[in-house]
Description:
Elements: E1 5-8, H1 12-21, E2 26-29, H2 35-41, E3 50-53, E4 63-66, E5 69-73, H3 78-83, H4 85-90, H5 92-100, H6 104-109, H7 112-117, H8 170-177, E6 181-186, E7 189-194, E8 211-218, E9 224-231, E10 242-251, E11 254-263, E12 270-271, H9 273-279, H10 289-296, H11 308-322
Parallel strand pairs: 1-3, 2-3
Antiparallel strand pairs: 4-5, 5-8, 6-7, 6-8, 9-10, 10-11, 11-12
The structure holds flavin-adenine dinucleotide (FAD).
Amino acid sequence: MKTFKHFDAESVDHVLAILARYHGKTALMAGGTDLIGVLKSEILPEYPKIIINLKTIAGMNTIKMVDKECRIGATARLADIAASGLIQKIFPALAAAAESVGSPELRNMGTLGGNLCQDTRCWYYRYPDKMGGRIPCYRKGKGPCHAVKGENRYHAIIGGKKCYAVCPSDMAIALAALDARVKIIGPGGSRLVPILDFYNVLCTILNPDEMVTEVRIPEPGKNTVQAFYKNRPREAVDFAVVSVAVRLERTGDVCKDACIILGAVAPVPYRAVAAEEAVRGRRLHEIHAADAAKAAVKDARPLSQNAYKIEIAKTLVKRALLSF
Ligand SMILES: Cc1cc2nc3c(=O)[nH]c(=O)nc-3n(C[C@H](O)[C@H](O)[C@H](O)COP(=O)(O)OP(=O)(O)OC[C@H]3O[C@@H](n4cnc5c(N)ncnc54)[C@H](O)[C@@H]3O)c2cc1C
């Protein structure tokens, strides 16, 4: 690796001061499970001169209920979220998503903020510089998306357009179904952004002088059910081929509201609005899971090698709806 200066952050204000002082030359680090790989492979031409360790900020790793809202600090570890009694009881879909990430080692080091902000896993984008030179592409600011005519079995089937890399974060999928918001702090103050608005097709909406400090999730109503399912090549240490998170709110046996999010099918978490419409207002025993599953992938336009993702997405949506 190239050398860099390392700061142990004492507070959020300390981070903001360093970001302002070394504008554009910094990188934030939490668990480092993604960032260190990005730096070692030198996938990007720019290399940070300063690394700011966020894990030394006291109290930014807590999980607590405040005013009917769960607040999870950005440096809360995925292992702690998966094991939290509060999360398991009130947000089982989030606990399942956290438990599904990578391996125990990754969950012990990886944090919520890092999981949401991790870089994509597209193999063209992440190609190491030392193995014959990094590959320029649309996502890096210059060149085509090589997945379009290349090896694209894990790429997007919906909404790819100029870049077909998928959002790799499992936590984002469960949090989107749970209507969570991300707290962002920068020099101008703080803002709360719905998680679906936190991403654009190439990255997050974070400015270089901002950081994530917290995620807030509203307490679901008593009659809410939720589920998270994920398909991956191996049961351990693998990213999702497709994932789904579903939240249904019921009045009696009628589905009053629904939120259905698909993961790893698009550059951002994909809200399957047509599938939601297929279940909303119906009696639970009248919900036709197969129709909702079909509606969930109505916008799919697969590439040469990834049409199989459509069937997996339909199966996961059906599985989630039939689990309630
Ligand atoms: C083998 C392997 C398998 C994996 N499998 C999965 C999987 O199945 N599902 C899945 O979702 N993920 C998976 N991952 C990714 C893993 O979850 C992430 O690497 C991890 O969550 C990142 O967290 P971190 O704290 O280590 O982040 P870091 O590596 O420290 O940071 C990642 C990025 O986020 C930025 N960042 C970190 N914290 C903040 C903050 N508070 N505000 C703003 N920016 C911030 C950093 O600057 C960096 O760009 C896998 C990774 C590996 C290596």
